[in-house]
Design goal:
mainly alpha, globular, ABC-2_transporter-like
Length: 266
């Protein structure tokens, strides 16, 4: 039976997830260096696209630089290249011991990932927020509080999607392949590979019926000022709606997966 633990238990899990990110600081530093290097390459490509044009699809050159900086800053916090942690516990049978903990399994993993995301932002993301403006002309958000809310919702929405993908391990002995396909779709649909504004209108309309823009693109467009006023609030409301919907769906799929779970000796 799933139980509702005290909030302090989830906070403790989040703290452990946060502290774990400091265990291998050299790896985090070199990861940050890699992110800055590829960020520089991506900025060069986008600025070449602009040429002498003042704008491309509503983006100025400064917006494009800011877009690249943000995608590199949050690449680790949002696990945009994939996340298999829950999947591994299912395949190894470790999920059986997790079920003995005084947590709701979805809440436990959400708390753990929140701590992980915060830790990754501190060791990799925050330093890059200082580095990019020193080298390039990066824009700062005009609506800091609303943008912060959008950042948190982007993480939450992305986590719910990643958890759903990991639940495929309940039905597949080789769900890693499903995950790789899902991360490729995520990278395209959330706007990591290219700003969604650069895509054809028909493609953006299709993406509008999916949760992927809420996982990154909405936050970027708020940050650079492409969405202001009512449009900004509408974007955040849409992020919230997709986040709640995906968490509900993740809870339903998790419950079904646990019903068919078979652990050797269990």
């Amino acid at each position: 039976m799933l139980r509702s633990p005290h909030l302090a238990l989830y906070a403790a899990v989040a703290r452990l997830g946060f502290r774990r990110q400091f265990a291998y600081l050299p790896a985090a530093v070199w990861g940050m260096v890699t992110n800055v290097f590829f960020g520089a390459l991506r900025i060069a490509v986008l600025l070449a696209l602009f040429g002498k044009q003042p704008q491309v699809a509503g983006y100025t050159a400064q917006d494009a630089v800011t877009y690249v900086a943000l995608t590199q800053v949050f690449i680790a916090s949002f696990s945009l290249f994939g996340w298999y942690d829950f999947m591994r516990t299912i395949h190894r049978g470790e999920v059986s011991s997790d079920l003995l903990r005084p947590f709701h399994l979805l809440g436990y993993w959400a708390a753990q990932d929140a701590g992980r995301a915060a830790g990754q932002f501190v060791v990799r993301g925050a330093p890059m927020l200082l580095i990019f403006p020193l080298v390039w002309d990066m824009k700062w958000p005009a609506q800091p509080l609303l943008t912060l809310i959008s950042v948190l919702l982007a993480w939450a929405c992305g986590f719910a999607f990643r958890f759903l993908v990991n639940c495929a391990a309940f039905w597949s002995a080789d769900a890693v392949g499903i995950g790789r396909f899902a991360w490729a779709v995520l990278g395209l649909g959330c706007g990591f590979l290219m700003p969604l504004a650069f895509f054809p209108e028909w493609f953006r309309q299709i993406l509008g019926f999916t949760p992927f823009p809420a996982m990154l693109n909405a936050m970027v467009e708020l940050w650079v000022g492409l969405k202001t006023g009512a449009a900004a609030w509408e974007a955040v409301a849409l992020q919230l709606g997709w986040t709640l919907a995906l968490f509900v769906l993740a809870g339903v799929v998790l419950a079904r997966g646990l019903k068919r779970l078979e652990v050797a000796g269990g």
